[in-house]
Amino acid sequence: MFVSYVVMENTAKEINKKDLKALTKSGLSEFLASLGLKSYRSDQIFQWLYQKGAASFDEMTNLPKQLRSDMENLAVIKKAAEYSRQESKDGTIKFLFKLDGPDDYKVEAVLIPDFYDDGVAKRITVCVSSQVGCMFGCSFCATGKMGYFRSLTHGEIVDQVQAINRLSEEKFGKKITNIVYMGMGEPLHNYKAVMESVRIISDPLGPDIAQRRITISTVGLSKQIKQMAEENLGVNLAISLHAADDEKRNKIMPINESLNLEKLEEAVRYYYYKTDRHLTYEYLLFDEFNDTEQDARNLVKIARWVPSKINIIMYNDVAGVTLKRVREDRLNRFMRTLVRQNVTATVRRSRGDDIDAGCGQLAIREGTERGKSII
Ligand code: SF4
User: Fold this and answer.
1) What mean pLDDT do residues 287-297 have?
2) Is 78's pLDDT higher than 80?
3) Of 49, 76, 103, which residue is a domain's last?
4) DSSP string covering 213-274, please?
5) Is the model's pLDDT at 116 over the cut of 90?
6) Could you tell me if 237 and 173 lie in one domain?
7) d(CA 110, CA 166)
8) How far is the CA of 336 from the centre of ligand 1 (A)?
9) Residues 17-39: tens digit of each pLDDT
10) To the nearest whole number, what is the mean pLDDT of the chain?
């Protein structure tokens, strides 16, 4: 019978409780099997954690009462919970999630809806955070200015998706359609947790969002790009490029000094030949910095490394950053050069300007201590 897993003589205090959401899916199954539970119970608990967003065993109503109470003594469920939200005029919503733990860290996630003319939601994109702060220090990025504090667990990443997915269903009558790992942190610097979060997000017993609708963005960590090529995942890879020659890239992205464009090219080619997947380059266009004809021509060369497309992103100015959003005439000239060279390029207008939800703007502004919010 199922109670056989309980080590009866142990008191709750003596048992080192297992953090269930720190376990991978297979780790969770192994742990529950070691307690004598059948695999269907593992599926039920997984579904409660990652699809229904349960914060306690009490909520798991299809588990026997005794099992729920035993689990309470054996394990804990940590949950990144919504702390606050701000809604923009254009429908973009920025969330602050409080992580479970003594450190009181908070991270941001953003919901970006696109609507048909009749107001029905067409595409609902969620931008998630993977770290508290970031160690890569890109000069245009508010998160980079915070410094690095810690990486999120896969559970904390999935919690953002799961909570926003529920809101999306309530508010727009449909699930979120796309996920981008472009919030706070460098996803490939938190490699294992990010990969596990992708597996859970796309699991039919989790949020069940197709991998082809998930995009992971990186500043160009070449070792991890190659590693990702071996993962057999159907996700999209985006490279945060932002400058098309080493000299300029060094100025705004310190990582380029050790991992330059030559190393990036090698990793990107490896990734493409292993996966046959097209890439996206993200290029924030800054006024009179990376927006000249020569920059566009350099970008064309990069776009030809492997089949790819380019997202030109309009920067939302960040306080204390001298780089500014490109002017329209310079943007148009830059785009003309790309288009004439048959490069696939689109311009992404910024969203959520009034709530600082744009690319490069995510950071906990309310805190006085680095990385901590005191709101
Ligand atoms: S742009 Fe990305 S990698 Fe660079 S500092 Fe910001 S969060 Fe980190």
Assistant:
1) 97
2) yes
3) 76
4) GEEEEES--HHHHHHHHTS----EEEEE---SSHHHHHHH-THHHHS-HHHHHHHHHHHHHH
5) no
6) yes
7) 14
8) 28
9) 999 999 999 999 999 999 999 99
10) 90
87 shares a domain with 62: no
Mean pLDDT, rounded, for 111-118: 90
* 219 in contact with ligand 1, CB cutoff 6 A: yes
Task: Collapse the DSSP code of 71 into the 3-class scheme (helix H, G, I; strand E, B; otherwise coil) and give the result.
Answer: helix
The side-by-side arrangement of strands in the sheet containing 178-181 is: 81-87, 93-98, 106-115, 121-127, 178-181, 214-218, 236-240, 279-285, 308-314, 345-348
Q: Is 90 exceeded by the pLDDT of residue 117?
A: no
Counting beta carbons within 10 angstroms of the beta carbon of residue 234, is it exposed (0 to 12), middle (13 to 18) or buried (19 or more)? middle
Whole-model pTM: value is 0.91
* 128 CA to centre of own chain: 4
In sign, the C-alpha dihedral spanning 102, 82, 191, 315 is: negative
**Assigned token pair, 25:** 């899916």
Best residue among 219, 253, 321 to mutate for probing ligand 1, ranked by most atoms within 8 Å of CB:
219
Assess whether the C-beta atom of 187 lies below 6 angstroms from ligand 1. Answer: no
Q: Which helix (H) or strand (E) holds 160?
A: helix 154-172
Which tokens in the block code for residue 115?
Answer: 């609507």
Inter-residue contact 177 to 212 (CB < 8 Å): no
If you ran DSSP here, which 8-state letter would residue 169 be given?
H
Q: Cα separation of 214 and 235, whole Å?
A: 5
One-letter amino acid for residue 79 of the chain: K
Q: Is 286 helix (H, G, I), strand (E, B) or coil?
A: strand
Q: Same structural domain for residues 231 and 244?
A: yes
Give 364's pLDDT tier (boundaries 50, 70, 90).
low
Residue 41 domain boundaries: 2-76
Residue 33: which residues within 8 A CB-CB, separation 6 or more?
39, 42
